[in-house]
Fold these 4 entries.
Entry 1:
Amino acid sequence: MTKNLDKIGLSSIADNYQLFYIDLWGVVHNGVNLHDEAINVLKQISNKNKDYILLTNAPRPNNSVKKFLEKMGMEKEMRDHVFTSGEAALNYLKKNFLNKSFFHVGPPRDFDLFKDFEKDKLNDVAKSEYFLCTGLFDDHNKDLIFYKNLFEGHIKKKMVCTNPDLIVDRGTSRELCAGSVAMVFEKMGGKVEYFGKPYPEVYNQSIDNKDKKILSIGDNLNTDIKGANLQNYDSLIISSGIHKDEIKQFGIEKTAKSYETVCNFIQSELKW
């Protein structure tokens, strides 16, 4: 049974945990503005001398996201807790794919991810050794058929996907993410190496989490909550995020079950 924390707040259960994994987009901000109540939660967790990681499926290195949050007005002490799926992927690429040519699938704003090995980026799919997928091209950000045609005949190449999210809400608009492109590749028979929630690498790289009681907080059942379930962490779903319509119509129990997940707690917004 999922417990609703709207009336009693996160403070009612915070003492049960030593570490909090907190999603950024949809929980701490909406892509445009920071959420004041969520910022207060981060302050209160620090006041209790507990650890938290702002764990995000952003396909860029930590520093890129920190700069984005700085522009939003987040103070440095909080920004220092950021860990991205892009950072996890970057560590993997440097160890396993150095000097291998790749074709980048994604927008120019993600170029920071591979600036250390930009010489290996090719504009010819046929000559590249693997696909590095960080998102969708700006001029094909709604058309998944384009990517099916792009991958045709190149399914034997490996794909590294730096953001397993399928969709994200930016303000009031909904956008496709890298995970949607990777899904096209997989359905065609291709093999994808994913970095980010719900896969364990991003959790384990971010902090020493061994033997800690952990609560994972997010708005995405496919990534935040599924990741918590797979890692045996407790979970808190923020119901005002990408599943808001489903939760409103069917309730959290039925909605979570449809994604093969279990949520321990629910809040309409992250609030202390």
Entry 2:
Amino acid sequence: MFKRLLTFLILPVSLIACTFLATPVLTQTNADTTKTARHFSATPSITSTPTITDTTTITLTPTSTATMTFTSTPTITDTATITLTPTVTLTPTFDFPDVKVHTQAHCRYGPSSAYLHAADLYPGDTGTVRGRFPYSKWLHVKFDKLNYWCWVSNSVIDVVGNLDTVRYIIPDLQSVGSNMYGPPQNVRASRNGDQVTIFWDQVSMTEDDDRGYFIEAWVCQNGAYLWWTVSFPDQYTTSYTVTDQSGCSNPSSGELYTVEKHGYSLPVKIPWP
């Protein structure tokens, strides 16, 4: 009996509690009618304002005093004293052989008496030897009284010094001076046994300029290969015969020049027979 009564009391309370928890608002809109059913006006207000006050104040005061002081004072004492001792290479001063004329003679533009006259020499004239010729005993000398070099026979001078230290040189006839007449023309040669005759046409020169002609040749005589020079006093001599034998290993040859007082023409090769 008591249980039934308790059930009867609890049931209405539960229904009322359910009614307060649900507040439905039904709005239905139709074309013809509008029904608004409001069973309850209950506006639940839930105010939830969480207030979290958590103020954490962290004050970091780093106290780190690290003062690194590097005092690096390098002391490098390296004083290198280099004392150079220069090596002096002495250049020997060449002492040209000295000459002194003992017989009056001519100094010439080449190493034989067939060349043009260059200067007069007198006893007592001095100079130095600057060159020598390989095919004769003439010397190329710079005489103190002259401002140029010329050739002289060693038979008219005294030499003091070693001639073996002096170089050989070949005369350059084109350096002597100028020639206004040109070389001989129509140069030819013929042989008759051991005799070779050379011919050429006359070169007309003034009497003052005329110094004739000059031949420089290599010939074979008695088995010896000889350097041969000959000059002619004037322009009117237009042939020359020389002995040239067989028996030498080198061929005979020659060149012909016109000579006037200013110098030598270009050479003409002789067609040696």
Entry 3:
Amino acid sequence: MFTIKNYVRAQSLEEAWTLNQKRSSRILGGMLWLKMGRGTVQTAIDLSDLGLDTIEETEEGFSIGAMVTLRQLEQHPGLNQYTQNAVEKAVRDIVGVQFRNLATLGGSLWGRFGFSDMLTVFLAMDCQVELYKGGLIPLETFLTMKHDRDILVRVLVKKTPAHFAYTAMRIQRTDFPVLTCAVSDVGGVQRAVIGARPNKAMLVKNEDGLPAEAFAEYAAQVVPTGSNMRGSAAYRTHLVQVLTQRAIAEMGGANCYGNCTEPQRENHQRPH
């Protein structure tokens, strides 16, 4: 349980940023992870009046406000057409519809959670985040930055010619993932993004043009994994190779001729 002492609906980003400079203040997204914790928030800052809950599509790309919900992403025809439904696949098993109607993209990315399906799938795109004071930053760079008091305003996705695929292993639907995997071919460069390892997502680029099987083996070699209640490090390393190769095949970047390796299972886990 947590306590909010002061609640403010900011009328400008400058007002929100100024209020947020105090360590006892907190920007509100969907508040779903905040509800799971304990503590006191001196000033809760609501961005709902700032028009950041829309997805704007142009010929060049998508501008996605930080307050856009996961459900909006799941149902957006243009974004899912561009990503060959990778976004919808990444979102659909996140808890339930009621949760996805509240959880925001800004909160999901700002938290840089290890289990974040959103971080995994957006890292596979030609993508930038816009910070109020920090400006435009590649998502890959943002991932490595320390948390500060800036505000994530929106996410910008370029419509670079690309192919995408997304897959994950879960113990059961709506549970936290054991491992997530997004692959893409963006502008001729193949990428694999591995999340829930259990640390935050990691991007691996196929800069040498390796075939699918070799690239999957390489990803398994360079992506560090760890153990928790959902799986061992060794099992996750096994999944890195299997899910990467499977996703590449689904993307159309390789033909497994029906012989793609099926993952071994721990605790009746299944792919989604």
Entry 4:
Amino acid sequence: MLDARVCSCHASSRPIPRVRAGAGVGALLAAVLLAGVAVGAVPADGQGRVFPGGAAAEDGPERDTVLVEDFEQSRPGRFPDGWAFVTRGGGSRSYEESRDPGEQVVVRAADGGRFVRLTTRGEVLRYTKRNGDDFKWDIERHPRLAWRWRALALPEGASETGENDTGGAIYVTFGTDWLGRPLSIKYTYSSSLPTGTTVSFGTLQVVVVSSAAEDAPGHWKTVRRNVQADYRRLFGEPPPSHTVAITIWSDSDTTGGRATVDIDDLRLLPPRR
């Protein structure tokens, strides 16, 4: 069981030791994502914490963006190109090899555009793009990450602090600390917790950026996060300049429920002027 505890709205005064961004990228990703599956542990005091604005979503036009994925090059009705399932040993497997009967990842077309739909029925799914292989991310030049998503169904009774299912999530994976523990931030679409809640599982930090308790179901929502600022606040030190990967995620295995979440337009953004 992971050592889970509630994260307050300010970074700890005792920073986690500096990361190593180099060795074992595949194994690192596997460790991060397998840890995410295990995050059914309840944080120490059983509650999340809400922090004020700071690194939250921002509005307005953007320039000098880097496209991670808009799914326009993938065929509707098929698994999206360029995404992979990371295995326990750090290798990759195809969608056909990795999928369980209760999960589906498929590109949809509507309103003149394409997006990916994640569906789980009592299962966990995760698919990854790696920095340097599938896209280029220099977090100093592009500290912010943006995407659009909507929740059509989220697992009932789920909470990042208890019945830990997350109908939709975006993982950002960094390097490891000096003990080899992977560091990551998981941005979630929560079934129940308010936007702004953070939950700490040590080297895995969970941030609720959308919530069924606040958003009307079925409507697209744009999220913009200053990942560099989030990392500083959550881990107490600057992030490495080279992030490892971005992962799209959905799970409903703890509650045995169902989740359907659409994701689109993942982009890297420059500093806010």
